[in-house]
Design a protein that fits this description.
- This is Stage III sporulation protein AG.
- Keywords: Membrane, Transmembrane, Transmembrane helix.
- It comes from Candidatus Ruthenibacterium merdavium.
- The chain is flat and about 90 Å long.
- It is of the alpha+beta class.
- A 3-stranded mixed beta sheet has the order 1-8-9.
- The longest helix has 17 residues.
- The chain contains 5 helices and 9 strands.
Length: about 190
């Protein structure tokens, strides 16, 4: 019985596609798909929202995100055991927006050819781009926050080789010198 229903639907579909209005049906389907796609956020819009929220994040929120990421990577180091990480940042980073600058220079000379007045006037304004529903400022550069120091407390830090590997991993991941990384052994519970 299922096979006859499938055959019936296949014949109906074949008949629809063979008619002159097949293009019309496909056009309507395309319009419906475009309409439905507007209901879901686009991946670029998600990236823009993430970038905006990253720019406006507080130092403590950025520290917490970095701490979680560093903790996840340090936990994978052989011998590290249980890990806790604390990161301090010097600043929250900086976003530099593109600007349109117009400079006007005015020079005045007296009758002897000596410069009497030298004036520079300028205007600058931020550049914006249309992101569909609204205008967004055009980002020129994003400077990541500067890491001041990192403390890693873990069970395996009593072993010098584990401590050294963790120090190198943290230094490499964050792009900071090893003297800004402190690795210490975790306190053991006394029974």
């Amino acid at each position: 019985m299922k096979q006859t229903q499938q055959q019936m639907w296949a014949e109906r579909l074949k008949g629809l596609l063979q008619k002159k209005n097949a293009l019309f049906v496909l056009g309507i389907a395309g319009i419906l798909l475009l309409g439905a796609s507007e209901l879901f956020p686009k991946s670029q819009q998600k990236a823009d929202v993430f970038a905006q929220s990253g720019q406006e994040m507080s130092v403590s929120a950025q520290e917490q995100i970095l701490e979680e990421r560093v903790q996840q990577i340090v936990e994978t180091v052989d011998g590290a055991g249980k890990v806790k990480v604390m990161i301090t940042l010097e600043d929250a980073g900086e976003t530099i927006y593109a600007q349109d600058e117009q400079l006007d220079a005015e020079h005045q000379y007296d009758e002897n050819g000596q410069k009497v007045l030298d004036r520079n006037n300028g205007q600058s304004s931020h550049l914006f781009f249309d992101s569909g529903s609204d205008e967004q400022p055009l980002v020129e550069t994003v400077r990541q926050p500067t890491v001041q120091g990192v403390a890693v407390i873990c069970e395996g830090a009593g072993d010098v080789s584990v401590e050294s590997r963790i120090t190198q991993v943290v230094s490499t991941v964050l792009g900071i010198p090893t003297n800004r990384v402190c690795v210490a052994a975790m306190q053991t519970a006394n029974p």
